[in-house]
Design a protein that fits this description.
Blueprint (H helix, E strand, L loop, with lengths): L32 E4 L2 E4 L27 H14 L13 E4 L15 H14 L3 E5 L5 H20 L6 H5 L21 E7 L11 H8 L4 E7 L2 H8 L3 H17 L3 E7 L1 H7 L1 H13 L4 E6 L6 H15 L3 E6 L6 H10 L4 E4 L13 H11 L13 H11 L17 E2 L2 H9 L17 E2 L7 H10 L6 H16 L8 H11 L7 E12 L2 E8 L18 E2 L5 E10 L5 E11 L6 E8 L3 H13 L9 E10 L10 E9 L5 E8 L2 H18 L13
Parallel strand pairs: 3-4, 3-10, 4-5, 5-6, 6-7, 7-8, 8-9, 9-10, 11-12
Antiparallel strand pairs: 1-2, 13-17, 14-16, 15-16, 17-18, 19-20, 20-21
Length: 706
């Protein structure tokens, strides 16, 4: 039996019945082998239908072809120098280039649609934190993306002109941050290593590069970098593109060369590369070699279907890195198997120096690799440089800002940057963290701009309560903490959830103090809701054309008389009456204690619903004593049904978010009761009392004056 020694990986050659065995060298990664007695065998690919071993790189593609003639290389070099003031693909030692595709691949997420202003805002924030490449969109697909590149180029030219840089069109477009030192906004730290990239694809079959609309759109686009997608899976070439394997290589070669000849730096995204390598390693590598020899600056290996395993990604990527020499290799992972971040890290371990992904993991289906988590892992766990010095500490703020721009909720449990990434609920954890901050945190949260926090709940210990009090500036004794903790456990047993309702917890501390005196007290309230909209509606039907007002079809032949000689068909049905109205009226009786003498007030109000009527009545009763309430408004209102059986008698939990327009201070309160109105009113009262204590002018209720 023949034996063959391969570079860090051994497997069965495609379409052969000969079994190949090897002795693993010391360079073989440990996770690629498993021990059986005294023999070492390569682990088979989990994705392989035939359970064959990972195919070895064919001899014919272990090295790239000879470089192009010197004069051609000199021509391309001069174009690049004239175009860019710095080399976008020249990395420092131990640096990994982050390539963000939120504006293109991320925007394909269901429920996410970005306006031009949104795209520009996201781009601005990415440039500020120092992402290496920003893929702005697909200029050949829609006017909005084309406009994005135009605006970015104009903005960069204006800023470059202000800085007297004298750069050319494309040079000024590399990054508007080149004039950061002259930026009037001193709070913004623009970095100088960001390059804008436009997305496209290889030319279509049967069309020359000069006639291909997509390639022409990329040439018209002022972005200095062009990223084109190319097929690297033989089956997709034949069934999807409907071209021969040789024709596909021509598409790649001609498209890359054409863009380079016209002054673009080219990145090739090898679509379905890993699946293609598993199916036909020789052809998949030949696609990469063709792109590299045509002059592509970087090639990204794509797990387009998102189903690869990390050990397979690392093994295959290492083969590519060793086969293509000096060409920059990147990875582009999707998260269908929940491993996009792990696969990206595996690619870097194998030698990839570019990682493509989206901020917060946005993208089609289950999303792309989360560039936020990747950046933190590479920097903090692997010692790689991913953003300029000092910018990693802004990662949390950047991720949350981009989520807000994209109108997406930041995932609370998102690693590193989520609000709950360093939140602790268990009493034992909180007690341990006070003694040793790293006891239950894998990093110091401040390294990525986040912070650790403890939450209070029925699972809390006294340490959680003391920590919550400390963060509000209160000095709480052990006895008071014990008293408040007992109240928290009692309220949560009734349906309250206080872990995210900080204002409700603060009110508990406030009311537990020995010297507490309420600014007001609700004696009673009444709500009346009525409506005249329901009842039997007589709908007229039109006899002329056989159609009724409700669109029910032909009219009834038996018409009735209204006594005036006019016959009308009337079809009684249940519905809403035209011109009907609903009324919601609330009466609130309160005692106020702003002066030494208690004052009782009665207030009546109407509102758009019972809760709105209650809020208006309560504000009306308090406004004279607490005018700061005019600046406090409800920003969100949420109702949760707590019944297991879903009955109408279930306990209802209401959460209300408030905001003070003068300070932008925000807080949340919670109420729970079998009556949704009672639950709402409890949260409303707590929220307004909290707002009175922390009003815009710093007022404190003074019970000794007047």
């Amino acid at each position: 039996m023949s034996r063959r020694k391969l570079c860090r990986h051994v497997g069965r050659r495609r379409r052969t019945t000969t079994t190949t065995t090897t002795t693993t060298t010391s360079k073989t990664p440990l996770f690629l082998v498993k021990k059986k007695r005294t023999d070492l065998k390569i682990v088979q690919l989990s994705r392989s239908r035939s359970r064959r071993k990972l195919p070895p790189p064919p001899k014919s593609v272990l090295k790239t072809n000879s470089p192009p003639p010197a004069e051609e290389e000199e021509k391309r070099s001069s174009i690049t120098k004239a175009k860019n003031s710095k080399d976008a693909f020249k990395l420092e030692t131990n640096e990994i280039a982050l390539y963000d595709t939120t504006l293109r691949d991320g925007a394909q997420q269901v429920g996410m649609s970005l306006t031009l202003d949104d795209k520009l805002a996201v781009s601005k924030r990415l440039k500020e934190i120092g992402v290496r490449f920003i893929e702005g969109g697909y200029p050949g697909s829609n006017p909005k993306d084309a406009k994005y590149f135009e605006v970015e180029a104009n903005n960069a030219r204006e800023m470059s002109s202000q800085s007297n840089s004298g750069s050319s069109k494309n040079s000024s477009y590399t990054d508007a941050a080149e004039v950061s030192n002259k930026n009037k906004n001193k709070n913004v730290n623009n970095n100088t290593n960001t390059f804008i990239s436009a997305f496209g694809m290889t030319r279509r079959k049967g069309v020359s590069v000069e006639q291909d609309a997509g390639l022409q759109a990329m040439l018209d686009c002022p972005a200095p970098v062009a990223c084109i997608v190319a097929k690297a899976w033989d089956e997709q070439c034949e069934k999807v593109l409907e071209v021969t394997l040789e024709e596909n290589l021509q598409l790649i070669e001609e498209s890359v060369a054409y863009l380079i000849e016209n002054g673009k730096d080219v990145i090739v995204d090898a679509e379905h590369f890993y699946d293609g390598y598993n199916a036909n390693p020789e052809y998949a590598l030949k696609c990469l070699k063709t792109a590299a020899n045509a002059g592509a600056k970087a090639i990204a290996l794509c797990d387009t279907n998102g189903g690869m395993m990390p050990w397979d990604v690392e093994a295959i990527t290492r083969i590519v890195v060793e086969s293509l020499g000096d060409t920059m290799i990147g990875v582009h992972m999707h998260n269908d198997g929940g491993l996009a971040v792990a696969n990206s890290i595996a690619g870097v371990r194998a030698g990839a120096t570019m990682v493509q992904g989206c901020f917060n993991g946005y993208g089609e289906r289950t999303g792309n690799a989360d560039l936020v988590v990747i950046a933190a892992n590479l920097a903090l766990k692997m010692g790689k440089k991913v953003v300029p010095d000092g910018e990693l500490a802004k990662l949390t703020e950047c991720a949350r800002t981009i989520a807000k721009i994209c109108r997406q909720d930041i995932l609370a449990r998102q690693p590193y940057v989520g609000p709950d990434a360093f939140a602790h609920k268990g009493g034992l954890h909180v007690a341990a963290l006070k003694k040793m901050p790293m006891s239950y945190n894998h990093i110091l949260p401040e390294l990525v701009g986040n912070s650790a926090r403890s939450v209070v709940s029925e699972l809390s210990g006294r340490g959680n309560v003391l920590d919550a009090a400390y963060k509000t500036g209160r000095e709480v004794s052990g006895d008071m903490a014990k008293k408040v903790l007992a109240q928290i456990k009692s309220l949560e047993s009734k349906g309250f959830i206080l872990e995210d309702a900080g204002a409700s917890v603060d009110i508990l501390f406030q009311r537990a103090a020995s010297d507490y005196e309420a600014p007001f007290n609700v004696v009673e309230f009444t709500v009346h809701s009525g409506s005249t909209s329901f009842g039997v509606v007589a709908k007229e039907e039109d006899d002329d054309d056989g159609s009724s007002d409700s669109g029910s079809g032909s009219s009834d032949s038996n018409s009735s008389s209204n006594g005036n000689g006019t016959n009308r068909n009337r079809a009684p049905s249940e519905g809403y009456k035209e011109g009907s109205f609903s009324s919601n009226q609330a009466i609130v009786k309160i005692d106020t204690f702003l002066t030494k003498n208690m004052e009782t007030r009665l207030s009546v109000a109407e509102g758009n619903g019972p809760v709105d009527a209650l809020a208006k009545a309560l504000r009306s009763a308090l406004r004279d004593d607490f005018p700061q309430l005019d600046g406090i408004s409800l920003s969100d209102y949420k109702v949760d049904l707590l019944s297991q059986g879903g009955t109408t008698a279930a306990v209802t939990r209401v959460t209300i978010d408030f905001v003070d327009s003068a300070t932008d201070l925000r807080w949340r309160t919670v109420g729970a009761h079998s009556s949704i109105i009672e639950a709402s009113f409890r949260a409303l009262v707590d929220g307004l009392e909290y707002g009175i204590e922390r009003c815009a002018d710093g007022c404190v209720v003074d019970f000794e004056t007047n």
